[in-house]
Design brief:
alpha+beta
Amino acid sequence: MRTGSNIRQRADGRFEARYTKARDERGRIIYGYCYGKTYEEAAGKREAALMAQSVVREMNLLILGAGSQPFFHAVFADGCCGQGGTA
């Protein structure tokens, strides 16, 4: 598996930072892109996008988790969605 910063300099001189935005129904990665005039600017924009993405994910979990503990225990009991378990 490849690792690294996923920031490259384009032919037009701008820097392009790539990050994992989501996954499609087949499990393939959907990438988001941020651009900047400098490496640091592109990296900062990517970090801001990732932070915003994690805040939304945490808020969704808080909203879904409020008052629905039996549901989560039933769905995630075996560590995988939809494989049963006891509530």
